[in-house]
Design a protein that fits this description.
The protein is of the alpha/beta class and 421 residues long. The chain is built from twelve helices and 21 strands. It is 29% helix and 25% strand. Strands 4, 14, 15, 16, 17, 18, 19, 20 and 21 form a nine-stranded mixed beta sheet that branches. The protein starts with 5 loop residues before the first strand and ends in an 8-residue tail after the last helix. It binds pyridoxal-5'-phosphate (PLP).
Length: 421
C-alpha cells in the first residue's frame, strides 16, 4: 500500500498534487512519501515484536539524508555497504550502535572509519577480511564486533543478478565451513563474535527460500554455541519482494515474514536484526516524467519521455517492470493504446516498456513510474550529461526538494582540463 492516489482527477503524493511539484521542480524528478516510508518501517518492527529486534534499513536502496533522518528518528538502524554509506548514516544522525556494515569488499580505510566512528557490527564475508579487520582493530586498540555472513546455498528464486545465497555467488562463507571459520575468528585478536548473518537475495516473492535459510541458521546457532561461541544476534538480511504490478499475485507480507522468523528462530533467545531495503523504499517513491514527443514508427508508437535509463536503470539493467500511470486520471472506460515508452538516451536499451497499454497521451503530459523508490535515484548516473535527477519528499500537505538538480555549470566544473593541453 502507498500514498500515491488520484483525488479529483489528479495524482497526489499524500496531500500534494504531483502536477504542483512538477511545476515547481521541473521534470524528471523522484518523489517519496514520508507516510509510506513510515508505514513500511513500522510493519517490519511490529512483525518482529515481541522478539528483541533491530530493523536496519538497507540504505543502498535509497540513501538520501532526509529519508535516513526520517527512518532513523523512528528508531531504524542502517545497513551500510561502503564508507560513503556509513558517513551518510552518521550524517543523518543515526548512532554507530545502530549501524551494521555489510559487503564483500570492505577496505581497511572503511573498517577504520567505522571502528573510529562507532559500529554495531561488521558482517564479515571471508577469511582474508577477518584477518584484515583483526589487524585494523588491533592497530586502533579497538575490538570489532562481528558476525560471519554464511552462504546457505539456497535458491532465492529471484533474478540472477540479485540472487546472493547460492554457492556460486560471491557472497559469504560456505555454511559447510562455518564452524572452522568461526573457530578462526575466535582465535584472532581484536574481534568479538556476536552472531550470524545471512542474506540470500533481493525481490523474493516466496517465503520458502527464507524458511530454508533460517532453518539452516537455527541449526548453525546450536552448533556454534556447542563449540563455545556466543551467538546473541541473528542478522537475517533483507530481500522481501514488493508488488511491481497491481495485477501480480501479492508477495508475502512483512507480518508473515515476521511470523516465519519467530517460528524458525524465536526459541533461540537471540536479538533479531533484519535489513530490508526495497520493501521500505520501493513503493514509497515515484519517478515523474513529461512526454516530450509522441513519435509514430512504422509499426508502433513511441512515447518519448524526459526520463531515461540514466535516471531509472532497472528496466534496462534487469528487464524490470514499472507500472506507468498518467498524472491526470483518465476518465473511466478511456480506451488505451499501445506505446513503447522510451527515454532520450542514445541507446536502444533506453526503453522503459514495450507495447504498454496506456490511455492516449500527448506532448507535455505527465506520467509517473510507480515503485521507483528503491534502486532508482541511487543508481542514477549523468550518462549523456543529463543532470542527476532531483529528489522530493512529501509529508502530508507539504513537500521539500531533498536533493536539487545540479546545474550544468556545476556539472562542467567537476571536470578539469590540465594546463598542458
Ligand atoms: C541489498 C542488500 C539488502 C537489501 O535488500 P532488499 O532486497 O532491498 O531488501 C540487505 N542486506 C544486504 C547485505 C544487501 O546486500
Amino acid at each position: 500500500m502507498d500514498h500515491f492516489l488520484y483525488r479529483d482527477g489528479h495524482l497526489m503524493a499524500e496531500d500534494v498534487a504531483i502536477s504542483h511539484i512538477a511545476a515547481a521542480v521541473g521534470t524528471p524528478f523522484y518523489v517519496y512519501s514520508a507516510a509510506t516510508l513510515t508505514r513500511h518501517y513500522r510493519l517490519f518492527s511490529e512483525a518482529l515484536s515481541p522478539l528483541p529486534h533491530q530493523v536496519c534499513f538497507a540504505i543502498k536502496s535509497l540513501s538520501n539524508l532526509a529519508v535516513l533522518k526520517l527512518l532513523g528518528d523512528l528508531g531504524a538502524g542502517m545497513d551500510v555497504v561502503s564508507g560513503g554509506e556509513y558517513l551518510r548514516a552518521k550524517a543523518a544522525g543515526v548512532p554507530g550502535e545502530r549501524i551494521v556494515f555489510s559487503g564483500v569488499g570492505k577496505t581497511r580505510d572503511e573498517m577504520k572509519l567505522a571502528l573510529t566512528g562507532g559500529i554495531r557490527q561488521f558482517n564479515v564475508e571471508s577469511e582474508p577480511e577477518l584477518r584484515a579487520l583483526s589487524e585494523v582493530a588491533q592497530s586502533l586498540g579497538a575490538t570489532a564486533p562481528i558476525t560471519l555472513r554464511v552462504n546457505p546455498d539456497v535458491d532465492a528464486k529471484t533474478h540472477e543478478k540479485i540472487a546472493t545465497g547460492k554457492k556460486e555467488n560471491k557472497f559469504g562463507i560456505p555454511i559447510s565451513r562455518a564452524r572452522a571459520i568461526y573457530a578462526q575468528a575466535a582465535s584472532l585478536p581484536g574481534l568479538q563474535v556476536v552472531g550470524i548473518d545471512v542474506h540470500i537475495g533481493s525481490q523474493l516473492t516466496d517465503l520458502a527460500p527464507f524458511e530454508a535459510a533460517f532453518t539452516k541458521i537455527a541449526e548453525l546457532t546450536e552448533a556454534l554455541r556447542a563449540d563455545g561461541h556466543t551467538i546473541s544476534r541473528l542478522d537475517l538480511g533483507g530481500g522481501l519482494g514488493i508488488p511491481y504490478t497491481r495485477s501480480n499475485e501479492a508477495p508475502p507480507l512483512p507480518f508473515d515474514y515476521g511470523a516465519l522468523i519467530k517460528r524458525t528462530l524465536g526459541h533461540l533467545g537471540c536479538e533479531i536484526e533484519i535489513e530490508p531495503g526495497r520493501l521500505i523504499s520501493g513503493n514509497s517513491g515515484l519517478l515523474v516524467s513529461q512526454v516530450i514527443y509522441v513519435k509514430e514508427g512504422e509499426d508502433r508508437t513511441f512515447l518519448i519521455v524526459d526520463a531515461a535509463m540514466n535516471d531509472l536503470v532497472r528496466p534496462s539493467m534487469y528487464g524490470a517492470h514499472h507500472d506507468i500511470i498518467p498524472v491526470t486520471e483518465p476518465a473511466p472506460a478511456t480506451p488505451t493504446q499501445d506505446y513503447d515508452v522510451v527515454g532520450p538516451v542514445c541507446e536502444t536499451g533506453d526503453t522503459f516498456a514495450k507495447a504498454r497499454a496506456l490511455p492516449h497521451l500527448a506532448e507535455g503530459d505527465l506520467v509517473a513510474f510507480r515503485s521507483a523508490g528503491a534502486y532508482g535515484a541511487v543508481m542514477a548516473s549523468e550518462y549523456n550529461t543529463r543532470p542527476l535527477v532531483p529528489e522530493v519528499l512529501v509529508q502530508a500537505d507539504h513537500f521539500a526538494v531533498i536533493r536539487a538538480r545540479p546545474s550544468f555549470d556545476e556539472i562542467l566544473a567537476r571536470d578539469n582540463i590540465p594546463e598542458w593541453l
